[in-house]
Design a protein that fits this description.
Largest sheet: 7 strands, mixed
Radius of gyration: 16 Å
Strand content: 15-25%
Strand order of the largest sheet: 4-3-5-6-7-8-9
Structural class: alpha/beta
């Protein structure tokens, strides 16, 4: 396959509300994964819990990034991802990284998840609030706000959350990309 060849087609309504297919080329996927391997980062031997349905583009990170760096993908059954108590039990089973929407993080916290040292939370797909950022910071070693529309190959930017009271940021663009905020 060439860099410009289609890796996959995913459907989104984006900001228009009208469904459309987005053709994502191999080169964009490779750039995305190599960038994510550096920041927010994933290391060989770490365990990432994949909770996202395949119809949501963020599953690309969950399935392929661990394979790229020699980490382990732990697949979560759909019914367990929807049950915050089951999800809590899975996350507490030596998981190092999980990527989820704020709605999922809220449900996990409401189920009594207390986090642990060394855990990394990737938050995206919806706006990260100050309240959730602070709740995650008390439970995790690292919290990352991830941003990007499907058309740009999953995440376009990321920001390590350290002082959310100074404002929630979308961060800097991933490698070999630019962002323009209008």
């Amino acid at each position: 396959a060439q860099a410009s060849d289609a890796a996959y087609v995913i459907y989104t309504s984006g900001s228009t509300g009208k469904p459309k297919g987005v053709v994502v080329p191999h080169g964009a996927v490779i750039n995305f994964l190599q960038s994510m391997a550096k920041e927010p980062g994933l290391q060989a031997g770490q365990r990432l819990l994949a909770v996202t349905t395949l119809s949501f583009d963020i599953s690309v990170l969950e399935l392929f990034l661990p394979l790229l760096v020699g980490a382990e993908v732990v697949l979560c059954r759909m019914e367990d991802a929807r049950d915050p108590f089951q999800l809590k039990a899975l996350v507490e089973d030596a998981i190092d990284v999980m990527q989820a929407t704020p709605s999922t993080w809220h449900a996990l916290i409401d189920a009594g998840w207390g986090g642990r040292p060394g855990f990394t939370a990737l938050v995206g797909g919806e706006s990260l609030t100050l309240k959730l950022a602070n709740q995650l910071l008390t439970r995790c070693t690292a919290v990352w706000n991830m941003y990007g529309p499907t058309e740009t190959t999953v995440w376009s930017s990321c920001w390590r959350v350290t002082a959310p009271e100074q404002g929630i940021r979308i961060g800097k663009p991933i490698a070999h990309t630019q962002i323009h905020i209008l």
